[in-house]
Amino acid sequence: MIFITCLYFMADCINKFLIKNGKVEKCVDFNNDFIYSDINVYEVIRIINGVPLFFEKHLERMEKSMKLIDMEMPYSYETCKGYIKELIELNDKACGNIKMVINADKPKKDFTMFYIKHEYPTEVDYKEGVSTILYHGERNNPNAKIVNDDFREKVNEKIKGGEVYEAILVDRNGRVTEGSKSNIFFIKEDFVITSPISDVLPGITRNEILEICLENKIKVIEEGYRYEDISNLDGAFISGTSPSVLPIRYIEGNALSSTKNDIIKIIIYKYGQKVKEYINYWR
């Protein structure tokens, strides 16, 4: 994913240690010069029970992002795996989020990984579902994680003002694409509906959900859903690194029975199984 740097990187670095180019540094001594770089490529990985969830797939996506700008990964898979395991052990943090960042526009491709602040949904959020709003706006490049400060600020203001969990983006054609920081899935009768990959960020959790649907013969339609028809839905949920699979209770005031929907229940259960299997595999 391609990321144009924002000035909140320094605040992102938490806990005691980070790793830069294979060397351990203290967070308090963190040199934030790299945040003024024009282009950074990054991934955020969730750590559960000391395991970086779906690490291989995050690294694969990072490699693809580098190729989009005609660059190569500076380190091998095994090297990156060693770094992240060391970072987890050094900080003694079995749960959290780790950000991996590569300076893509410098002769020396600095590779930094560090823990960042995170917010996970509560048990009540999963049990009852969360509220969302619609936001009419779209990314300049939906397949690249290019952060526009102005766009992000406006969306965050709407989320905060509406006291909701997420803003669901609607494009110029009136079709829902994705969440501001997540992927979105709708349920209509026996179908799961989600935007085509060409219109969204290719989320790691999203891909796992599509695999679950295929394995369990759940029919998927990949198309943009018109926002005017949201009241006709039988359910909806958010997917992402931090929320995992999170039912939606309201979209712009429209009530949904997502937590009671059988298809969503199956997906949540099967995703939980995938997470457990991966943790056991890593160990």
From TrEMBL:
GO biological process: carboxylic acid biosynthetic process
Gene Ontology MF annotations: branched-chain-amino-acid transaminase activity
Cofactor(s) for this UniProt protein: pyridoxal 5'-phosphate
Cellular component GO terms, alphabetical: cytosol
Presence of the UniProt keyword Lipid metabolism in the record: no
A family per Pfam: Aminotran_4
Enzyme Commission code(s) on record: 2.6.1.42
Keyword field: Aminotransferase, Pyridoxal phosphate, Transferase
Similarity-based family: Belongs to the class-IV pyridoxal-phosphate-dependent aminotransferase family.
Name of the featured protein: Branched-chain amino acid aminotransferase
Source species of the chain: Clostridium putrefaciens
Gene name of this polypeptide: ilvE
